[in-house]
Design brief:
single chain, 346 residues, Enolase-like, domain 1, TIM Barrel, 2 domains, seven-stranded parallel β-sheet, 30% helix
Length: 346
């Protein structure tokens, strides 16, 4: 008999994680495992990475929805994005022998590591400069800076200091505004930021303002990437409508928030149709979710650096073969997964 069960797990940041929306010291997530009761030691493991305050799945009865999904694990996948992602990856792992293998490919053989950007979290100017220097010392050639959390002039000063040391040929800079600009000030700020040879900026204004976002995509001197704008739209028609109306230069795919891997595949197909670039990022998952996203990304022919450098964020992440080697995410098959004792709900 095939059975599924879930558990809650609280990840602890090793620093105070700041965005323009909030400050976080912990991140709650959920694991689901699927197994045959005749061989319970062989199980598939997935992560239902609920992102409170951002995910469309952030509802009071989320755990009840998990209960429902566990009652029929082999039926059609759940509609809720985080649960769908967790179940489709747990099922794939189970079908591949319960070895944390979602898609068997060269990446999990330790070949072809994935190029990633270095993520610079918000902080005061001194903190952000220190983090930039640390990433560059590790060999990162592409940095993504979260902005919108401190004074804009200070953020300009940080970018100025970076560009005084590294030109655009030495260092690519991506920005993530997390919707912190307004339709009124966005173009002025984008013009000021463009002086620093910025590759792209994610979600300059809050999601749901399509007419304003379309205008920004047309007039901005910096390429625009949609992130939060994609959350909650799972039908093909809705996805096509977003890309058709806004016409961004890039989209950012977080499978936990974008309907899972299959739904993210559809976003990619539509992005190709509209000549829109894409890359994937994690949504603060543990190594369980990060592993699944990385395996999925490694099957795509995408030359852009991915946003998958989140494995070192937590003091209590799941020990795994995932390793950060400079500016690349690698899988070391000689290392083992160590799954802690967890309290499962059936």
């Amino acid at each position: 008999m095939i059975k599924a069960e879930w558990c809650n797990y609280k990840l602890v940041f090793n620093f105070l994680a700041k965005t323009s929306r909030e400050e976080m010291r912990t991140k709650e997530t959920y694991f689901v495992r699927i197994f045959d009761t005749d061989q319970p030691e062989i199980f598939g493991l997935g992560e239902c990475a609920l992102f409170k305050g951002l995910s469309a799945d952030d509802v009071p009865d989320f755990e009840n929805r998990l209960d429902e999904a566990c009652r029929q694990p082999l039926d059609s996948l759940p509609q809720m994005s985080a649960i769908r992602f967790g179940f489709e990856t747990a099922l794939a792992d189970f079908q591949n022998g319960g070895k944390r293998i979602i898609l068997n490919n060269d990446w999990i053989s330790g070949l072809h590591p994935i190029a990633i950007n270095g993520l610079i979290w918000m902080g005061d100017k001194a903190e952000m400069v220190r983090r930039v220097e640390e990433k560059i010392s590790k060999g990162f050639k592409i940095l993504k800076l979260k902005i919108g959390g401190i004074n804009f002039d200070e953020e300009i000063s940080i970018l100025k200091s970076i560009r005084e040391r590294f030109d655009h040929k030495q260092l690519e800079i991506r920005l993530d505004a997390n919707g912190s600009f307004t339709p009124v000030n966005a173009l002025d700020r984008l013009d000021k930021l463009s002086k620093f040879d910025i590759h792209s900026i994610e979600q300059p204004i809050a999601a749901g303002q399509r007419e304003a976002m379309r205008r920004i995509c047309i007039e901005s001197p910096i390429a625009i990437a949609l992130d939060e704008e994609l959350i909650g739209f799972n039908s093909t028609e809705a996805k096509r409508e977003i890309l058709s109306e806004i016409r961004p230069q890039y989209i950012i795919l977080k499978p936990s928030l974008c309907g899972g891997l299959r739904q993210s595949d559809e976003w990619i197909d539509l992005a190709h149709e509209f000549n829109v670039g894409w890359w994937a990022t994690s949504a603060l998952e543990s190594n369980i979710g990060l592993n699944a996203i990385a395996q999925w990304v490694s099957t795509k022919n995408n030359h852009l650096a991915q946003g998958l450098g989140t494995g070192e964020l937590y003091t209590n992440n799941i020990p795994s073969p995932l390793t950060m080697e400079g500016c690349r995410l690698n899988y070391r098959p000689d290392k083992k997964w160590i799954i802690p004792d967890l309290v499962w709900q059936d």
